[in-house]
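Re: that chain you flagged

S.,

Sorry for the slow reply, it's been a week of failed gels. I finally had a moment to sit down with the sequence you sent. For the record, here it is as I used it:
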Amino acid sequence: MKMMKKLPLVLAVGAMLAAGTATAESTYGYNESGTGTVSATAKTKVTVKVPKLILLRVGAAGTAADNLIFNAEPNISSAPGSTMGADGNSKAATWDGVAPTFADPASQSLIAFGWTNALGGANLTCATTADTMFTGAQGLASSDVSVVSSAGGTLAHPGATTACVGTTTMAKNTLLSSTWTYSVLGTALANAAAGTHVQTTTYTATTL
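Prediction finished late last night. Pasting the structure tokens below so you have them in one place:
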């Protein structure tokens, strides 16, 4: 009768184990003679989920694009030289028939930062869209805007100009930074049509 009372309990425990309700691994070692070495092992699995993240900043913080303005300054050979004075018509000049030249406008700089924890790192690229004035047909193209990365900087501009012919590699878990200096040569301005030339360069960092 005692065996009959114990049997339901044994069956219940067996059913629980068969159903996989145990939440941790458990083993035992046994030696009936009480000699030698016995051992038991158990494993714990730890899973850490880290979200993939990539950060990019070019210029000031925020969503507004930095506007780099280059003002062309013509120089008329002989008088008045590079001093045009106020706007107007029929100003006095002693032009000697030599084509005017343009000075190199002051260069302008932006800071750039990048970071990612993607296992394969990331690539930084860029693409430039221009209005109808900022085209080769009007004498000024995106390839005329040079970009130089600061010496010692770790985030190179993707290409030597805003034509964006190039890709920059970003290593994982490494803070990258640089100063990008933009410039336009006066020789390029000398070939440009009069008017306002506008282009926008979009930088994209993509995880690998």
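What I noticed first: Confidence is low (pLDDT under 50) at residues 1-22.

Talk soon,
D.
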